[in-house]
Amino acid sequence: MPHPALQAALDARHDLGKYVSLNLRFLAPDADRAALREALIADLTQTRRGQSGCESAPEVWAACRGGLPPAAPETEEVDKAIQHIQSQLPGLMNDSLDDDALQALAQAARGVTTALTALTRRLKDAR
Q1: Backbone dihedral angles phi then psi of residue 2, each to the nearest 5 degrees
Q2: Domain at 8, CATH number
Q3: Which of 30, 45, 55, 67 is most solvent-facing, going by the fewest CB within 10 Å?
Q4: Domain that holds residue 41
Q5: Which residues lie across from 54 on neighbouring strands?
Q6: pLDDT of residue 1
Q7: Residue 25, exposed/middle/buried by CB under 10 A (0-12, 13-18, 19+)?
Q8: What is the number of domains present in the chain?
Q9: Contact 40, 109 (CB under 8 A)
Q10: Which DSSP state fits 69?
Q11: Are 48 and 101 in contact (CB under 8 A)?
């Protein structure tokens, strides 16, 4: 059985890291604005889907966050990215974000994936 912090990181990587940028991974680098926005809406507002409905990236992070090392740099990176995502969700939903803001939001989503992968790797290596 993995250490509790490692198990929490594995769970966060799967539940959040995998899905927060899932649709973004399939976009062509030159995808148009509408395709980028559609991928972001799916990834950030429907991050976890189940019989009880959908949870957004910030909601999934809130559920995962408690078991992770609070002072870990990767955890802090995800905290910052999720704060940015949370602040931009209203604009994403009402289509008021400009192209630069959409790109920054995509970068934040990808950053969550990268940070959770790095955290998991570091905790595995520390064993």
Answers
A1: -65, 155
A2: 1.20.120
A3: 30
A4: 4-125
A5: 49
A6: 62
A7: exposed
A8: 1
A9: yes
A10: -
A11: no
As a whole number of angstroms, the distance between CA 6 and CA 108 comes to: 23
Please state, as a whole number, how many other Cβ atoms lie within 10 Å of the Cβ of residue 122: 15
Residue 127 pLDDT level (bands cut at 50, 70, 90): confident
Closest CA to 56 of 96, 92, 13, 20: 20
Angle between helices 73-93 and 57-65 (to 10 degrees): 150
Q: What is the DSSP letter of 27?
A: S
pLDDT 10s digits, 16-50: 999 999 999 999 989 999 999 999 999 999 999 88
**For residues 7 and 67, is the Cβ–Cβ distance under 8 A?**
yes
pTM over 0.90: yes
Give the type of residue at 79.
Answer: D
Q: How does pLDDT run across 49-105, given as a tens digit for each residue?
A: 888 889 999 999 999 999 998 889 999 999 999 999 999 999 999 999 999 999 999
Q: How far apart are CA 115 and CA 91, in angstroms?
A: 25
